[in-house]
């Protein structure tokens, strides 16, 4: 006589506790999913939002498609643009700004490897799409992109008086309107004499040292920024500090210098030099001159602001110079201060500390960038862009006439209609005028600068480079680390099963396990006594169903155990999966699988997960023995359900539509037996889950989706297209040698990144479209897709 179910429950407190825990988790999941729907419903009516159809969501977006969205978000139908081809931006007119954050060095795999750490990204961004790595930088691709021909192009500011002002401007009179190279702006000897530069053979400069500038200057000659600080001595102004930066803005020399004569005034307010600073210094002017001669190549062009004063203090003659005080000319010989030019042209604050003086390295870099910007942009555009703010030209009423050949470049159109365009990040070759670039050496500085000016920005691109720097500092094998990350993610879809009867083949293991989902690979593990198998699924849900359905199944009278691999990377897997279950992106999605028609297996999940029935028709002799371990009652199966139709969208809708409106269905392939179902609301999904036993009459196994909807399969996301399997295996072994320390260091960097991303998002104005791009990586040995995350900040947005 069998014990009653209540008695069985009383005798098995462990089971009762497990069921209670499962029920609690189910309730918790339900509340979370309902909360996600409620949050969407409670968004202010008419708020901007982005939507993507499920079938399109599973296709990667390219840089071209990303810029298509950014163009529409910024210009909209008023600019004659249509909705992007791959998504729909609702209420575009209410978009107040566009912010793109690029996380250099990161791929989609890195995000999911650190999914628990990236709390802000996974909870505050409601759209994720795989990103195809681009051969050009994302920032340059956005800035240099052309907007399709506009039906109603913005009217540029243009009138006769503006043309006249530009035509007779002192800069245009001096340099013309055409872009030219470096040599066009190098001072001639006559100009140097006129502006009091030290020149060989001129009286007063007989004891000056000369650099080895005997090589002819070309447009490819390197530029070096120079700035000096002086103090007042008994013999006049003498050198106390010199700074030199190279063409990339890197400081190559920064030296304090001991004056030869007694100091009367350190001029600390301007120079920042004090007596205490110079007291231990022994470096002399001759030493500094020697260092400069050694550092400067023969064709070097020195750049500075009022550079003649610096060369006089250095007692140095250098015949190739560009002076930014003369480059940005004013009427009647007047000159702009370097601080003014930096603020107006470079949008950068320098010389901000009035008490501690100037920083010569900062000033040298600013002068260098001003010269580079002038050369790259050309005199005509420099004058037009800064005519009002720098030279004080006041435009009259705008003319309705358009310029003969308006630019279709995205950034040009935005500036034409008065919207700001800015890049903040490490110095990079970005296709944007230098005046709109702000360079910083650390992510902390980038964030701080962005937060100070965010309300004045319309299109801003922020690049965080800390993870890329981390890879360069801590790993000589970046490729192997990428492969290690992918390997850990693939292991999440793996289960171990056994023991199996002798002579049990991998084909028979596949038949057994494919009732839970598509099996990617079977590896038989033969010990000296028994046979086990490693089963790798395509989908996370397949592995979860196998653990739930097949663990404890009796094969030839002996139960098999189905379990996860035990390894370091799997220690937090339960927490990871629980977090994926309550991910807002999965709130309305359901995974369903229909076992194969021929050699089918029908499973009921109710008692233990109560019965496992295998159709004997068409199975091999060994496979038929599977049913010998089952009671006769469990062998009986409704024959009408063993000949179901092939899985199709119609079949799925017929089975699931009565639970709630099915919004979309994705079948990975025509012969696929698993499907991703998106309901209109989470109630439909929950109703289907509560009716899992009824669905078995239609031979459907179901599970809450854990794979985010933009991924066709978990394994596809975690599998890089590598050059060769041999290289992959070697790389994986190499990368795993120090994976623990690498994971810990990488996790800390990712956590800081997530905090900074939250601060960026929090500082954005309401109605801003926020895009986070993990650009991915393409190399000779592998292709690692990136990831794009999108969210329009609502007026009532609470950042977690």
UniProtKB/TrEMBL annotation:
Keyword Nuclease: yes
Domain RRM: 493-567
Family annotation (InterPro entries): Nucleotide-bd_a/b_plait_sf, RBD_domain_sf, REX1-like_exo, REXO1/3/4-like, Ribonucl_H, RNaseH-like_sf, RNaseH_sf, RRM_dom
Feature: compositional bias, Basic and acidic residues: 18-34, 723-736
SUPFAM superfamilies named in the record: Ribonuclease H-like, RNA-binding domain, RBD
PANTHER family named among the record's database cross-references: RNA EXONUCLEASE 5, RNA EXONUCLEASE REXO1 / RECO3 FAMILY MEMBER-RELATED
Primary gene name: Nfu_g_1_007044
Lineage: Eukaryota, Metazoa, Chordata, Craniata, Vertebrata
Nuclease among keywords: yes
Name recorded for this polypeptide: RRM domain-containing protein
Matches recorded under Pfam families: RNase_T, RRM_1
Chain positions covered by the region annotation Disordered: 1-50, 720-748
GO MF annotation terms: exonuclease activity; RNA binding
Alphabetized UniProt keyword annotations: Exonuclease, Hydrolase, Nuclease, RNA-binding
Entry-linked SMART domains: EXOIII, RRM
One GO CC term, this protein: nucleus
Originating species: Nothobranchius kadleci
